[in-house]
């Protein structure tokens, strides 16, 4: 880790030779397949640094491009092996169901700003179908003939990286929904193209529907898509007047705050680089505890999913570095600050949401991590975090439009 930071420091001040020397030493000790988690995460960060500094990759570097199919398989294996994404998705879905129930309507419109492979939504589809079936059965027994006989309608507007990925996601979700009674399902895919493509304006809502917005790992989307503008997205989200915005994101220790950390704008990106390194070191360690040392699945997950994320995160740091001071400062703002500036306030998470997260973790911990994962509450019940040992990895928060007017600051 020390050598990686030395290389990053040298690269930051333009000393490419010193950066290359430090990287060569990193590669001597790093490993993509064997070794301990620290050696493996070092290998992927070394690759990302070499690419960032435009250095020729050493012989042992990973130079092949990951295909969409490989990324899908790696994501699937990670989803099954670790509670990481399941915590995020099931926690968000519980809050979405509660917002839908509170609205008292039969139509739900979910706007998902990074639908990816759609793994979050089968559990929501199943929950809505089960609730509608129970309601319909009770209505039949009561012979009331009221509006509860109408199937529940779920519409998902999902943003994705490509038309092919969105078509595949729609097909998977539609097949699953076909087997769920008392549910009408509709999916609309929106490709993330350029900054001025007007994709946010293409979101059309039904006045009779409960609207919720899903922001799961928006920083990762920002890292992947250089054209994604959080300010524009949040301004349009506010115009939708959603009943709920659910945010799950990485715990970012590099966005500023502590003494010496500063804000990671154009002046220095090193605090954010160090935060990314610590974060992925913890993720690699947790995965090491979930899967055997010689596991082909673990190797694929690290190579085709986590390694890709690390590369994207480093590319995002470069965009910050080359942005102007004001743009870099906007990119550095945390999502809590952005949502507050856009006219949202955080809401308390329900006891059901917290209990479900803890139950999920208890069920998963038997075969993963030896109990190393932790769920903790914070912010007077307005935030919940999933952590590995003593480090928080991701946080979950719920947001609603403020009753007061929108703040004066930009989102």
From TrEMBL:
Concerning PANTHER family, the annotation shows: OSJNBA0084A10.13 PROTEIN-RELATED
Enumerate the UniProt keywords alphabetically. Transcription, Transcription regulation
Taxonomy, top ranks, is: Eukaryota, Viridiplantae, Streptophyta, Embryophyta, Tracheophyta
Homology family: Belongs to the GRAS family.
Protein name (Swiss-Prot/TrEMBL): Uncharacterized protein
Q: Where is this region: SAW?
A: 315-400
Q: Name one Pfam family in it.
A: GRAS
Which species is this record about? Triticum urartu (Red wild einkorn)
Map motif VHIID onto the chain. 108-112
């Amino acid at each position: 880790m020390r050598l990686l930071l030395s290389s990053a420091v040298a690269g930051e001040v333009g000393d490419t030779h010193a950066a290359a020397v430090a990287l060569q030493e990193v590669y001597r000790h790093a490993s993509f397949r064997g070794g301990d988690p620290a050696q493996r995460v070092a290998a992927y960060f070394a690759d990302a640094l070499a690419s960032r500094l435009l250095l020729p990759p050493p012989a042992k570097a990973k130079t092949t491009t990951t295909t969409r199919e490989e990324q899908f398989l790696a994501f699937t294996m990670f989803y099954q092996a670790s509670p990481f994404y399941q915590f995020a998705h099931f926690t968000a879905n519980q809050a979405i169901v509660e917002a839908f129930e509170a609205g008292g309507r039969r139509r739900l419109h979910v706007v998902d700003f990074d639908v990816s492979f759609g793994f979050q939504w089968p559990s929501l589809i199943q929950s809505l179908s089960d609730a509608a079936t129970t309601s319909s059965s009770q209505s039949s027994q009561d012979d009331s003939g009221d509006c509860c006989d109408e199937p529940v309608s779920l519409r998902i507007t999902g943003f994705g990286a490509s038309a092919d990925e969105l078509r595949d996601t729609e097909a998977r979700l539609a097949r699953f929904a076909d087997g769920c009674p008392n549910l009408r399902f509709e999916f609309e895919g929106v490709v993330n193209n350029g900054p001025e493509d007007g994709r946010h304006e293409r979101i059309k809502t039904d006045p009779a529907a409960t609207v919720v917005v899903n922001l799961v790992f928006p920083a990762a989307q920002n890292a992947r898509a250089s054209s994604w503008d959080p300010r524009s997205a949040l301004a349009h989200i506010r115009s939708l007047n959603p009943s709920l915005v659910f945010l799950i994101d990485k715990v970012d220790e590099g966005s500023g705050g502590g003494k010496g950390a500063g804000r990671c704008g154009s002046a220095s990106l090193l605090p954010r680089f160090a935060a990314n390194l610590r974060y992925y070191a913890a993720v690699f360690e947790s995965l090491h505890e979930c899967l055997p040392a010689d596991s082909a699945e673990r190797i694929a997950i690290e190579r085709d999913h986590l390694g890709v994320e690390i590369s994207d995160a480093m590319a995002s740091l470069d965009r910050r570095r080359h942005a102007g001071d004001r743009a870099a400062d906007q990119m550095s703002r945390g999502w809590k600050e952005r949502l507050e500036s856009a006219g949202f306030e955080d809401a308390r998470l329900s006891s059901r949401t917290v209990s479900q997260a803890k139950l999920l973790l208890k069920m998963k911990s038997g075969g993963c991590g030896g109990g190393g994962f932790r769920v903790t509450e914070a912010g007077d019940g307005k935030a919940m975090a999933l952590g590995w040992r003593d480090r928080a990895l991701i946080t979950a928060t719920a947001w609603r439009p403020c009753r007061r007017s929108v703040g004066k600051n930009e989102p």
